[in-house]
Amino acid sequence: MFADKGTHETYLTTDGYLRYHGGDYVHRVIVEEALRKKLPVGAVVHHIDYDRTNNNTNNLIVCQNQAYHKLLHALQRVVDLGGDPNLDAYCSYHQCLHRKELFSPVKKRWNALNNRCREATNEYRRLRGLNRDKFDWRARLNQQYRRILNRYTSKGISWLNEE
Q1: Domain count, the chain
Q2: Quick check: 61 and 69 in contact, CB under 8 A?
Q3: Distance between first and last Cα of the chain
């Protein structure tokens, strides 16, 4: 109806999906017929049970893009390891679950995919000699001073800069 099915015979692709000969993937055709419209450009169809040949409509979810599809897989990994996706995150360095508080407090740096806890990030940097000055106590003290100074000057408090 909406997608090009080619012939009605299907075959298994090398990546494990069913595909019509000379046409589209079976799961995309099934979703388009269920929705009665074509999928938007960039949309990805996710198989809930990870069985790429199970094309039941109850097993398919339409993701708006590949990033959201990867996020589903990352959150499912947390659930599979026995964690709560709202409280726990997977550390790719330690390859285990940690509480989300142990990761970067900056939300935009947390992508749920290849994320490291703060301890792992510091260990990685120490082992490779990266940002050596961040582990020096004087440099850390100066960094804290600069952060406090920036916080007050950004709020319009100028008495710190006056002499």
Answers
A1: 3
A2: no
A3: 77
